């Protein structure tokens, strides 16, 4: 196979590498579960644009950044007894006041009230959960996400954007001059590897680089930059997007091309392996338009990195982490 088809290199180095991962939600959490097994300096920079569900209610009632994506990432990086992690992720039912809230969200809200600072609360919760690495919110204040649709209409609110079912032209945040934590830009600039995705393109990945200082730090960083492609497209956001269209959206919002490599799933191998996913019920897998993708990114790695778990298509966290670590050792 050519270098555009696989990343097959040894890992002899003993130098601690600095890896920064961007995104939010279950996609990012899944990748972090694989990366935390390696002896690396790991930092997750997580979106704080969520305004739905438990996060949205706490967002409105306590005027704090929404904790949901942060909670999921911290659970993924935690090194505690499984029961403690399960308790942290527990979602209440029954009571009208508590229904829908996760215990982790409530704990982060309580710590924010006690310390008076959301980032400080995240730091302290990281000590409680004994997380591997650091978790940095993209900003230490509320951020509102907006989307301009193809018809020119503007939608406000992360949870509302996918509901309209029309193609998204671009997304933007308010306030526009929001600042990240002081250490965030420095962490990005010192990184050896920066990873974007997987996750909801417009509502999880892009909001992190819409913060001006973060975007500038990414573009200035000499780190190798990799996008881990989504496995399926998403109704209301990226319906029937190809792999190159995902990359182009990243470039459009960053203002220039910046990726060194893309890791995408071997779609045909996935279809052969999971014949039980019928044509009528098959979700819209992201197609690898390799000619266009290779014109946008210097290296494209096509690997079998998808599996089906409880009826859901998801990344093989260990396999993705292995490819990323082998790539960083080669650079």
From TrEMBL:
Keywords (alphabetical) are: Cytoplasm
Give the protein's function.
Required for morphogenesis under gluconeogenic growth conditions.
Q: CDD domains annotated for this entry? A: YvcK_like
Provide the GO biological process annotations.
regulation of cell shape
Q: Which residues form a coiled coil?
A: none
> Any idea what this protein is called?
Gluconeogenesis factor
Q: Which domain of life is it from?
A: Bacteria
NCBIfam families referenced in this protein's UniProt entry, alphabetically: CofD_related (TIGR01826)
List the Gene Ontology MF annotations in alphabetical order: LPPG:FO 2-phospho-L-lactate transferase activity
Principal localization reads cytoplasm
One short Pfam name that applies is: CofD
Q: Which family does it belong to?
A: Belongs to the gluconeogenesis factor family.
Q: Which SUPFAM superfamilies match?
A: CofD-like
One cellular component term (GO) for this entry is:
cytoplasm
**Where does this protein reside within or beyond the cell?**
Cytoplasm
Ribosomal protein as UniProt keyword: no
